[in-house]
Amino acid sequence: MKKQKKINPALRLFCVILLASACLFSLYPARAEASAPWKYEYHPRGDEAFQQHVRQIVETGVTAPSGQGEVYYAGPSDDVQGIINSLAPGDTLYLQGGVYSRKIRIYGGVNGTADAYITIAAAPGEEVIFDGSGLNGHDQDQDGPSMFWLYGCSYVQLSGFEVKNAHGRDASAILLEPGTHHVVVSDLYIHNISTPSPKSEDHCANAILVMGRSGDTISNVLLFRNTIENCETGWSEAIAVSANVADINIVGNTLDDTGNIAICFAGNYGNAPSGVDYPRGGLVFGNTVTNCHCVYDTGFAIYADGTQNVDFINNTVKNCDGGIEAGAEHGGHATKNILIADNLLTDCAEAAVGIGTPGGGGHVSSVTVTGNRYRNVGWLSGGASILRFGSSDVSTYGNSYIASDDEMDLPVFETFDNPPLH
């Protein structure tokens, strides 16, 4: 491990800006404009300072270190966990190239501040791989590893590395648990995360799991421009937001061949106190989901189940069991205040949009479905573009069927630059 010597604060800031620039130009092609020239307004979720932080990252395409602390470097043979345990507000840990066959824990002692995030990132130009092959779970109840386990930490950024080969029941690449808040996970390449028996109930794996399993809320999270592919999630989802969670932003990610549902907000499964056992406040914006198929049922690619106040805007779903669904699987609980707008939904077997839960369950209300485009959907449901079951206060308008194959490949908006990191 190498620690950078203390330097003049102004010079340190200048050096960090240079490092961030080097990282940017090594990972991303040169471009004259910001990474996402917006055609549509979007509304980040979180407190005011976090909303500003989200916009800065999304609109510049850079998850930059704060430049206010020490800068460390570590390689595969160093005590990476020990360095992380000692990080202070504003510190940056650059991981050097190589394969790391270990799990990382980021606990409550690792806390930045609103203006001095702790950043853990691949060093500029370095290929950093965390390989879970052969690793076990972090406790007696979990037989698959969580490669990065965040529990009670705050103001932390993870960026720019690869996570692969976590295998087992309840395995995950990134796990956020209670008390974690103000976290950014960006530009990761996550693949081959799997559960051994995907058709068996309760066999689950996740690329990214945000699990609020207590009365201590997880909040203010940005998942940005990650690439997730070749996973087998079983009865879970590639990106899962569950239980006591608030203000989650899932923006510009690419998910391909992840098994079951790609992105899910789910609540009321008894994981947290009943008054807070559901996600509330979410933005799912500009993601691309392809080739996701459930091995035990027909599942929609993007799903709201027992959640409230979530916007699903400008996403692209192609060749999946279904497009976007707002349902409520547990009786006595509601899914409400859902916006499904301006999405491109093609080659979805069940339907482009689903509202309500077949056969009962909870109630779905206050749903707006507008400006969506779809083609070649619903062949399992008699050609339906929008399926509606028990629900109320549903508004659908301005949706359109794409008339030609040429139109099908036109993006809803100018897409994020998302270069490969591998």
Q: Which short descriptors sum up this protein?
A:
422 residues; mainly beta; 13-stranded mixed beta sheet; eleven-stranded parallel beta sheet; 4 helices
Structure description:
This protein is mainly beta and 422 residues long. Helices cover 10% and strands 39% of the residues. The longest helix is centred in the first third of the chain and has 19 residues, at 9-27.
Order of neighbouring strands in the sheet with most strands = 1-2-3-6-9-12-15-18-21-24-27-30-33
Give average pLDDT, whole number.
Answer: 86
Span between N and C termini?
Answer: 24 Å
Rounded to the nearest angstrom, the radius of gyration is: 21 Å
> How many beta-strand runs?
34
Number of helices: 4
Low-confidence parts, pLDDT < 50 over ≥5 residues? 4-39, 418-422
Shape: globular
Q: Largest beta sheet, briefly?
A: 13 strands, mixed
Helical content class: under 10%
Instruction: Quickly give the structural class.
Output: mainly beta
> What is the subunit organization of this protein?
single chain
Beta percentage is 35-45%
